[in-house]
Design goal:
Blueprint (H helix, E strand, L loop, with lengths): L10 H25 L16 E4 L15 E6 L2 E9 L7 H13 L1 E10 L19 E6 L2 E6 L16 E3 L6 E3 L18 H15 L4 E8 L8 E4 L4 H13 L5 E4 L8 H8 L3 E8 L12 H6 L3 H8 L14 H22 L6 E3 L4 H7 L9
Parallel strand pairs: 3-4, 3-9, 9-12, 10-11
Antiparallel strand pairs: 1-2, 2-4, 4-13, 5-6, 7-8, 10-12
Helix pairs in contact: 2-8, 4-8, 8-9
Bound molecules: zinc ion.
Length: 383
C-alpha cells in the first residue's frame, strides 16, 4: 500500500506563512534600527593641542579586534614633567564620569608633562544597557553646533563578550569573593591578568599603560546613588592621601564640598586600591551623585540624567535619608561634570605643589562656575 503523500500547502497557508515572515522581518528591522547604534561610538572631537590617539590594545595586543579596545587621547606638553591618566566610563551607566572625560579631551591644552584621557574605559559596557533598570539608551545635549547624543551604557561588560558568569567571582590575586556578575565589573577586576577573562584582560591593559608610560597620578571618574555612603567624595589610596587632602582644602575654599575617603585596604579590584598597590602611580577615584543609579527614583528617562530632579528623592531628602544635599533644583549633569572638572584641576595643582619635579601644567579646563553658567553643551561644541 502506498503511504499518503503530504499535500502541498494550500494558497491560504502559503499566504499566512509569507505574512508571518514579513512581520518577523519588519520587527527585526525596527529592533536593529534601535540596537545597532549601540555598537557605534559617538565621535569625540579632541582639542587642537592633542598629540595622538592611542588605543588600549597598544599596551596589550590581546585586546586587538575586540570590543574592549578603546581610544586614548594623549596630550603632550612642550616641557617635560609628570604624567597623568584620567579615566571616564569605567562604569558606562555613570554619565558624568564619561562626559567629563569627553569634555576634557575636547578642551584640554597641556604645557608641561603628559595627560592620557580615556572616555570609554569599559568600551564593551557602552554597547548594551543595564538590564531590568529601564534606563534610557541615550541622552542628548544641545550645543551651539547642534545636538550631541551620547550612549547610556551598563555598569558591566557586555555578556556577548564575557559569558557565562560564575556563581561566585574570585578576584585575582586576592581571592576576594563577590557575586557572579561582578566578574564583568571593570572596577572589581584590577590589577587584571593577561590570561584572565575579558574584563581582567582589559584591567591588565590599563595597568600596563600606567607602568609603561610611568604615570604619576590616576583619576578614575565615577557616580553613585545619592543614598550611597561614599558620595560627592574623593577616594584616595594611602600614598595619594596627601595630594587628595590638599586638593580637598582647595575645593572647600572654592565652596565645593567633597568628602575625603581613604581607600579600604581589604576591598579589592578597585582602581584606587589595586593601581595604588600594583604600580608607583597615585590612585584617586571621584564620585558624584547620580539619581539614575538610585533605588528610590521614579521614572528614569534622559531628563533624569540631565536635570537630576525626582519627586521621590525630594521626599527622601525631606525625611533625612540622603547622603547629599538635595532640593527642588535637583542635581543636574552640569553640577556633576563641574564637580569632576574642579576635582581634576585641584588634584593636579596639589600634585604640582607636592611633586614639583613631576609637575603637569594644564589649561583650557572650564571652571565649576563657568560650567554652571553656560552649561556642559557650551564646552562640547566641535571647534
Ligand atoms: Zn562607578
Amino acid at each position: 500500500m502506498i503511504p499518503d503523500q503530504p499535500r502541498p500547502p494550500d494558497k491560504i497557508t502559503r499566504l499566512r506563512g509569507a505574512c508571518f515572515l514579513l512581520a518577523a522581518g519588519l520587527l527585526a528591522a525596527v529592533a536593529a534600527r534601535q540596537m545597532l547604534p549601540a555598537r557605534w561610538d559617538e565621535p569625540v572631537f579632541p582639542s587642537r593641542s592633542m598629540s595622538r590617539v592611542l588605543r588600549i590594545s597598544d599596551y596589550f595586543s590581546g585586546l586587538k579586534h575586540t570590543r574592549a579596545d578603546t581610544e586614548i587621547y594623549l596630550f603632550e606638553g612642550r616641557e617635560p614633567g609628570g604624567a597623568m591618566l584620567v579615566m571616564g566610563g569605567t562604569h558606562p551607566n555613570e554619565p558624568a564620569g564619561f562626559l567629563t572625560a569627553v569634555l576634557l579631551a575636547e578642551n584640554l591644552s597641556v604645557e608641561r608633562g603628559r595627560v592620557f584621557v580615556i572616555p570609554r574605559a569599559n568600551h564593551s559596557g557602552f554597547t548594551h544597557t543595564e538590564p531590568g533598570e529601564a534606563h534610557p539608551m541615550s541622552f542628548a545635549i544641545p550645543t551651539s553646533a547642534g545636538t550631541r547624543r551620547f550612549r547610556c551604557g551598563c555598569r558591566f561588560t557586555n555578556p556577548l563578550d564575557q559569558w557565562p558568569d560564575p556563581e561566585v567571582y574570585l578576584h585575582h590575586p586576592s581571592g576576594q569573593r563577590l557575586s557572579g556578575p561582578e566578574t564583568r565589573n571593570l572596577n572589581r577586576s584590577f590589577p587584571g591578568r593577561a590570561d584572565g577573562n575579558f574584563t581582567e584582560r582589559l584591567a591588565f591593559a590599563v595597568t600596563a599603560l600606567i607602568e609603561r608610560e610611568q604615570i604619576d597620578l590616576v583619576m578614575d571618574l565615577h557616580e553613585a546613588s545619592p543614598e550611597y555612603p561614599v558620595i560627592n567624595a574623593i577616594v584616595a589610596h594611602e600614598r595619594a592621601m596627601d595630594v587628595a587632602a590638599l586638593a580637598n582644602l582647595t575645593l572647600q575654599a572654592e565652596g565645593i564640598s567633597f568628602a575625603l575617603e581613604p581607600s579600604p585596604q581589604n576591598f579589592h579590584g578597585l582602581t584606587h586600591r589595586e593601581i595604588g598597590d600594583a604600580t608607583p602611580a597615585l590612585a584617586i577615584l571621584m564620585e558624584s551623585a547620580n539619581l539614575m543609579q538610585g533605588r528610590l527614583r521614579g521614572r528614569c528617562d534622559a531628563g533624569l540624567i540631565l536635570d537630576g530632579k525626582d519627586p521621590w528623592y525630594l521626599a527622601a531628602a525631606r525625611a533625612g535619608l540622603l547622603r547629599v544635599p538635595y532640593d527642588e533644583a535637583g542635581i543636574p549633569l552640569d553640577v556633576r561634570v563641574g564637580r569632576h572638572l574642579a576635582g581634576i584641576r585641584a588634584i593636579t595643582d596639589a600634585l604640582n605643589f607636592i611633586s614639583p619635579d613631576r609637575a603637569i601644567s594644564l589649561s583650557g579646563i572650564p571652571t565649576y562656575s563657568e560650567v554652571q553658567q553656560r552649561g556642559v553643551g557650551a564646552f562640547l561644541s566641535p571647534k
